[in-house]
Amino acid sequence: MSRESFEALQEKIRAVGAELQGCMKEEVPSLFEKKRWVGRIMERVMQDEEFKVRLFRFVDVLPSLKSDDLVVRVLNEYFSARDLDAPPIIKRGLERLSKGGVSSFVAARIARSGVAALGRQFIAGSDPASCGKTMEALRTEGVDLSIDLLGETVVSDREAKDYRERYIELLDYLRARRTGMSRIRPERKTGSFGISLKISSFYSQLDPMDWERSLENTLNGLRPVVDSAIEAGIPLTFDMEHYHLKDLTIALFKRILEEYPDFPLAGIALQAYLRDTAHDLMGIVEWAEKSRIRILVRLVKGAYWDYEVAVSRQKGWPIPTFLDKGDTDRNYETLTKLVLENARYVYPAFATHNMRSISHAIAAADALNVPGDAFEFQMLFGMAEPLRRALLKRGNRVTVYTPVGEFIPGMAYLIRRLLENSSDESFLRKSFFENRPLDELIQPPKPAGVKEKEGPPGLFRNEPPADFSVASNRQEMMFALRTVKAQLGSRFPLSVAGMEVFTQGEIVSRNPARPDEIIGIMSSGGGEEADTAVDDARKTFESWEKTDPDERAGYLFRAAAEMRKQRFELAALEIYETGKTWKDADGDITEAIDYLEYYGREMMRLGRKRRLGDYPGEGNEYSYVPRGVGVVISPWNFPLAIPTGMVSASIVAGNCVIFKPSGFSPVTGWKLFEIFNRSGLPKGVLQFLTGPGGGVGEHLVTHRDIDFIAFTGSRETGLRIVRLAGETRPGQRNVKKVIAEMGGKNAVIIDETADLDEAVRGVLESALVYQGQKCSACSRVIVVGHVYDQFTPRLRDAIESIRIGPPEDPGSFMGPVVDITAKEKVEEYIELGRREGVPILIREEKGLYVGPALFEGISPDSRLARQEIFGPVIVLLRAQDLDEALEIANGTSYALTGGLFSRSPGNIMKTRRDFRVGNLYINRKITGALVGRQPFGGFGMSGVGSKAGGPDYLLQFMNPKSISENTMRRGFTPEVRQ
Ligand code: NAD
Q1: SS3 608
Q2: Which residues have C-beta within 8 Å of that of residue 406, sequence separation ≥ 6?
């Protein structure tokens, strides 16, 4: 744009801004009216960050609190008058409460009515009928309405169906009122009602990873709504939700319109905070032009900024949004221009409360000769009313986005609005709360171009999981699945003393999803091979222990690089060999890479000799030396990550090691050996020996020259190894060190303040991913008080809705168990459940698939509630209160993982202290520990040893050594550097 036209545009923007401001006079949006309670609370929120956080958290939990006593308790926990500079109204109330001046009945009523007032500010009513008057009043003002049905996160098919029915009821309701209510815009054939919908509410298993099925099933859910909408002549707009659903939402939008080309003005929201949006917008414009379907494009800034940034940072993915508000505002203007330039094909709807963005849109439309009725503005219910009225006054079209729904499901919406209004960046705050001058408010956006900071070089970062919402990642995985399948069935040797050895004995590895499919035929060694391997390891140890720790770490880093290159092939192999689903297999590979990167760095840290004390004439040094020769015995359920962790820790610490993988995952084990070989690791440092656990495994454990055993597996085997290793053999030089990670019987507690959307999803993930075959899996769910009756049917429906099928199918949530013995064992427990308790749900499955089973009425002392099952069996237990829940949870001999879903600060504090587990997770799933972030491992009968992926882990593979030298010679004490 030339300087002159830029100046002319700015001039016009200023003029429009002044005009709007003139129309608004001194009007203040209702949200900021200080004479109202809501206005006073918002004032406080904007001045006090700590209060804001507590208030939002309290508002979030309040609707789910059933009893008055509970309301008062939680209120006290959030706003204890002692440590908080609370507003006088709250403080006085709390003080009176603590002195017993007010009954909990009164206090709870005050709290509820206060939050209800906040709710009424942003939510028009609990159902369409209850907001008829509100809607009518808005329409009399001259605005159109786009109704958003608030709802819980859909976790089951039943909930998706309920949601769909609510949409249809809403459409019926609107159709009945349409004629009476649409007289204000007779020229608008589409009527003055619209509906905004969220695609995530139409299919409970929606996941872009399972692209085609997600599209198909969401379409199936949508069709009846679209049919009703067409019949009622009511337009639909697709809201844009989280980034990972964006491409799917756009694809779905196009598909539905291709099927219903006559649909009246369908719309889609696009978010200006996303870097991709200009590209997406142009794609949509081209599509609209080609298919001759006129659509509405709602341009929003984006409501999930915090979420997108946090999730991307947590996962290590590129952040899809701009990092600075100025960049988003600038992008909004770029998109405004683009959408106006294409107003022949799309109908622009500018959804913003920002006077600069609004003035810019009007000025840009003017400059492009787009008539005033060819675009509109959209504003949220309960916000920016003066701006809305000013726009109406100057003849612009305005639609009010009007949320309707119950309070609990609406809470997420409410919190987003509160956050938005009170953030430092909020235009409404600057304009109406801080009363900044017009000139400042309509300044052009100042993009700061903020980029994500890179950490210091060499810093450990978790390997990002594959983002399967990205098409290229899905394609790579599909390709890897085909490539690996074509290579299945080969023969593999042992590697002993640097030689590949094919043996007579064999272990046949099979695909649990299709047991006839052979993954590989693995050589199987015995005592002879084991003895040769140990002898060779002893010899190699002499040179390997002298290798510089940094150099040893280098082999791990090279192995990590090699794994990264093969990540999709490795994941594909796990899918075939051990029945892991896509994400779970991918997670195992990234965890393996993490161990290599983390332990490499840890060894570089620990490899530096430490000087202790500072005394003249004395040099004290503390360092670590390797233990010698070890054996690594691993399970099959994390076929790459667990052995990688144990092997890499052993060798980087300077030991030589013989690796015996599980008989169910030997081919994946061999891949690990090959990767280390490719890293250039000297021969003999790592040897590969498969064979029966009780044969070659036990031979190695009891071998005189084995100095340590790193084991992960069942409690039974672990305890046997501990016992065998405790016996000293003739000629043995070391007391054997045993590191044993064993099983768990893990519980998740759900208290009366829990967010049930999160709790259902958390339990589903923790208990059923990988068919419950994780040491960390949840198998007991302890629900406190009345929540039991709400939670149980939701969990049952959610379990009923998940897909069980071949793991290579990206839509399978669960695959088969590892073999027939595992299936029989799980089925025995299911039988026990039928005898001792009440089955809520048992899904029957064929082959090696075992349907998930959910039981209640089981005694906490029953075998079902105490023994590790290693399958998809969940026992639901009731508890009166948190104390009882913790007592049940702690009532087994295991102590591995545990979880709590709660929004009560008091309960969270107590659980942190009293839940006896190695890994406690709060308000999240209890599986999927990350290296360096959630070091993993239990105590009790769950294991001996310190946590994998934590700062103490490597120490177990070394002996500490202390050297003290008298540096004084004939009375002189020069500074001597070691
Ligand atoms: P498992 O005990 O049957 O086998 C583990 C390994 O030990 C295998 O390599 C096996 O061949 C070997 N083995 C068996 N008997 C042996 C013996 N007498 N001497 C030496 N080695 C022997 O366990 P699994 O079925 O492979 O794995 C599932 C178990 O592992 C579950 O109990 C699970 O909770 C546990 N696990 C624990 C962790 C953890 O970190 N705590 C992680 C994964 C799995």
Answers
A1: coil
A2: 126, 150
The angle at the Cα of 914, spanning 908 to 916, to the nearest 5 degrees, equals 115
Q: Which residues contact 899 (CB under 8 A, 6 or more apart)?
A: 746, 747, 748, 749, 762, 766, 778, 920, 921, 922, 924, 925, 926
Residues with Cβ within 8 Å of residue 589, at least 6 apart in sequence: 563, 567, 570, 571, 574, 640, 641
H or E element, residue 351: strand 346-351
Pocket test for ligand 1, best of 588, 591, 632, 662 (most atoms within 8 A of CB): 662
Question: What is the amino acid identity at position 654?
Answer: G
Cβ < 6 A, ligand 1 pocket: 633-638, 642, 660, 662-663, 693-694, 697-698, 701, 712-714, 717, 720-721, 741-744, 775, 868, 870, 942-943
| 3-class SS of residue 149 | strand
Pull the structure tokens for residue 727.
């016996």
Shortest-distance Cα residue to atom 35 of ligand 1: 713
pTM above 0.85, yes or no: yes
487-537 confidence digits (pLDDT tens):
999 999 999 999 999 999 999 999 999 999 999 999 999 999 999 999 999
622, two tokens:
């503390």
For the stretch 720-763, pLDDT in tens is 999 999 999 999 999 999 999 999 999 999 999 999 999 999 99
Angle between helix axes 157-181 and 211-232 (nearest 10 degrees) is 30
**636 in helix, strand or coil?**
coil
What are the CA-CA distances from residue 607 to residues 603, 612, 624 (Å)?
5, 15, 7
Please name the residue ranges forming H helices in 726-785. 756-768
Is 741 assigned a catalytic role?
A: yes
